[in-house]
Amino acid sequence: MKWLIDYDAWFFHSVEGLLKWLDEWLSISQKHAEQSMIALYLILTMIPPKWTLSVVLVKIAEAFCISPLMWLMHIRPAAIRRYTQGSRFQAVNRLILQGVFGVIAAVVFFMSPHQWTDAPMAVAQVVYVVFFYATDITSDGERGRRRKAALAELKKMFGTEWIPKPLLEPR
What we know:
- By secondary structure, this protein is an all-alpha fold.
- The chain has one domain (about 1-160).
- It has helices at about 1-25, 30-45, 55-75, 80-85, 90-110, 120-135, 145-160.
- About 10% of the residues are buried.
């Protein structure tokens, strides 16, 4: 059981590293990355194998069911994200989800007959797993590299008198 928890922690830190890399190198914040993953997942799962009215209606109903759930996960406060980040129960949930979606992706790739929509569907499952892990990550108010550099530049230009001081607590 310990190696499963260690694997979850490794995958969790890999996703966290990916989000930090996106922020530092491509200036894509975690908020925008999560929103992009929601859109990408919906786009990839909305591609039907055949364009019939019933299939399109089912895909639209699918989107109306999953998109609010993903959005609610996206807007969770940092305190809840921090709690679920260290929870062993949530780690087991993440591993179960990763296993189920991994099996779905494997079945889509390795079961014949293959259709052109198999690849987007398998990629969508991977995107959802990364999104599920990303919604448990919080920056804890840490400033990004660009914001630190901008504040340092402002301090050089105008000094530090303009920076608001924290309020003293009443006794």
